[in-house]
Amino acid sequence: MSTSPQSPPAEEEGGGGVRKPSSPRAARDDYATHVPPLRAKENPAHSRESAAARVRKRLTSTTASAIAIIIAVLWTLPTASLFLSSFRPELEIKTTGWWTMFSDPQLTLNNYREVLFSPGQGQLASYFVNSFVITVPSTVFVVVLAALAAYALAWVNFPGRDWVFLGVFALQIVPLQMALVPLLRFFSQGVTIGGYQILPAWDLPGAFAFTNVWVAHTIFGLPLGIFLLHNFISQLPTTLFEAARVDGAGHGVLFRKVVLPLTVPALVSLAIFQFLWVWNDLLVALIFAGGDVSTAPLTVRLAELAGTRGNEWQRLTAGAFVSMVIPLLVFFTLQRYFVRGLLAGSVKG
Amino acid sequence: MPKFPDPRVTIAATLSLVLLTGGCAYLSGGGGSAGADPDSPECEPYKQWQDIGGTVSIYASIRDVEAERLERAWQKFVDCTGIKIQYEGSGEFEAQVQVKVDGGNAPDIAFFPQPGLLERFAKSGDLVAAPESVQKLAEEGWSEDWLDYATFDGELYGTPLGANFKSFVWYSPTFFSENGYEVPQTWDELIELSDTIADDGVKPWCVGFESGDATGWPGTDWIENVVLRENGPDVYDQWVNHDIPFNDSKIADAFDRADTILRNPDYVNGGFGNVQSIAITSFQEGGLPILDGQCAMYLMGSFYSAQWPEGTEVAEDGDVYAFNLPPINPDQGTPVMGGGEFVGAFSDRPEVVAVREYLATAEFANSRAAEGAWFSAHKGLDLDLLEVPTDRLGAEILRDPETVFRFDGSDLMPAEVGAGTFWRGMVNWINGEDTDATLDYIENSWSS
């Protein structure tokens, strides 16, 4: 299978710098596209190569590096100071700036102890588990369904295919806030048309109370997922599919043996996207998961951590870092796929 | 290129996930208290609510420590009656409760911190009016001033729960006695005292308006207190009901009176800087300079007692204490301003009615007060249970039959004014905008 001559162009064009995120949720991770296009040097000379090389040369100069370092420091400073603050005693946090800890170091793990282990509602541990139980299935559902849908929209011929894709594409424009009340009504009252109960209300006990959040997150995540993967999958060379068909492969085999192995970077980047989005989400969880300790994720607890009148806000310093650990781990372990997959899937020539 | 995971891996992952969720369900469902013996003497007060059973969901803006105290307060009721209470607190209460009601997922009971919100749901027909039993308990427990705020078209929809007192001026008794200052009894004495303190080289007042999305509300408390004290409750009612325009000369006078303190560079902002620093000083930190003598007085509600760092003694002769803002106009006496929550119900199942009845009793008020940092205007509240002296002072004033009480005006005005332009107007005003321009800006935003 000769895939290598075909796939680089798609990625190279991605390096050209279409920076506009295709959805608000992509904006958060937009910085990922700022990574200089490494692919450029792998390509043989083009007429615009010289321009690109000039830009590249300028960007690697000492001044540019200095500017980049300054920007990086400015960018990291708030987070770093929050991190330092999380080790300071309550009164110090509330009365002085974080920089005073260099002249008058007073360190304590009290904030972390209070956030993680204080009795009553204070424990973040069970919310941590809830966050996992909400995030992992929501991610798996979106990646699996989006991959299947994207394959069908790209390589299965059926009437109205382009219209369906256009519809999915258009759905990205609809803000999810518009769907909150109707979807909640769908869950809590079912569907009634003209006095007839078409679908009953979802009254789910125990662990299935999470189903509402899973479904909601899957619905809200699918349009972007399908769009990203469709662009990636439809770029695969036609010859590949023709060859496989000649060998007797049906759609099932094509999807499993040809499409999936070739789209791993895109799948992983979508998974990271979705994971970070669901993990950091507060709005959907507030409405569909409720604020109860049995179903609420970490973000809901974090929002309450400061107390009714915000008098315990020093806890937020430690709480923020506890909730940040997992997304950071996910991002750093999978980041090499992330940049590659993002460039390959999101930008289409 | 990495291979797509083996199907067996996928199956294993799914399986472990199912086990995980199952385990969580087991953990969360398995707990709960064993329940008390319904015939024991300690269950005596709850006799009338036994044999009902069921679960009641409560949604409110009270969260974290205060939510835990609330749950402990009704624990005995839960144990003795077998009625489960599922409590959920959220900082997004005001917006979320609307979504929940629209989505057909309304809680059984909600605690509304603004009578205006209660009225909206009462008018839309979502709330259930208080049954006779609840009404009787409410009339026994609270003054008419309070119940009026939950009565719409002659029907009582809610019963008051907690209360806070918003006419407090916090000060340091130690600082006052060391310097020979006296707690002022009239507004003129208050200004005189401020001048004396300023002459001694200390900024007499500290003020903080910053409160995240709600920045500016401490400013509205200032204006409301002055309007109420200067013009009396009738003009105050006309003002919050928009029977007189917001840019009426009486309101302008109140702004001018507040101006003599809030925008006086000799008076503010102790420990923080100049007048402009008010807008960026958070209300939580605003009063802390009192502790180290950098400012002398801070106007803030009774709930500020929770903001003092651990180890601060709140007492009449301690590190900090509060006095009732002195009267301005002798003809109007000392009407006080405060806030609180109202218990409204979206459902009329017997167990919901039982919880409503219980929350309106003196037993609940005392049980909650015993947990600390809380008081209500309930006439049956045992003041000895109140640990914090300022809470006792506030509760004492609130339930005095002579006291004229008015609810925080910005909570009664339409949300776009009371939680919008009034807040923003105060911030613009403190940053130097002209009083007339501020009043016109707020008036123009009030649609009816």
UniProtKB/TrEMBL annotation, chain B:
<comment type="similarity">
    <text>Belongs to the bacterial solute-binding protein 1 family.</text>
</comment>
<keyword id="KW-0813">Transport</keyword>
<dbReference type="InterPro" id="IPR006059">
    <property type="entry name" value="SBP"/>
</dbReference>
<protein>
    <submittedName>
        <fullName>ABC-type glucosylglycerol transport system substrate-binding protein</fullName>
    </submittedName>
</protein>
<dbReference type="Pfam" id="PF01547">
    <property type="entry name" value="SBP_bac_1"/>
</dbReference>
<dbReference type="InterPro" id="IPR050490">
    <property type="entry name" value="Bact_solute-bd_prot1"/>
</dbReference>
